[in-house]
Write a structure and sequence with these properties.
Elements: H1 8-42, H2 51-81, H3 84-101
Helix pairs in contact: 1-2, 1-3
Length: 103
């Protein structure tokens, strides 16, 4: 008799779902990088911003986008390697985040 949370089907499902979530997370990081480029190049045409804000926003969004892309890339690598304890830890963490956000 196999242990209930260590079946091959459950691990495969968790790996697939985590990979898909990480791909979406990675795409959102790329979107933030695109927004930072747009802010740096064309936002001044639409809004009159203070020079400190105008120079700080692209850096903030660009740094956040780069951090998200790097973290999502590492998470994709972790989920593709299939280390069972790490997959369970990440899935429990994500479940907890979404559960608290739904309240």
């Amino acid at each position: 008799m196999s242990k209930p949370l260590q079946t091959l089907a459950l691990l495969g499902t968790l790996r697939t779902l985590l990979f898909l979530f990480n791909v979406v997370f990675w795409a959102s990081g790329l979107a933030l990088l695109a927004v930072s480029a747009w802010i740096a190049l064309k936002l001044h045409r639409y809004l009159e911003l203070d020079t400190e804000i105008a120079s700080g926003l692209p850096v903030f969004f660009g740094g956040l986008g780069i951090a998200i892309v790097l973290l999502a890339s590492l998470a994709c690598q972790c989920s593709l390697k299939g280390n069972a304890p790490k997959i369970y830890i990440v899935s429990i963490f994500l479940w907890d985040v979404f559960w608290h956000l739904s309240k």
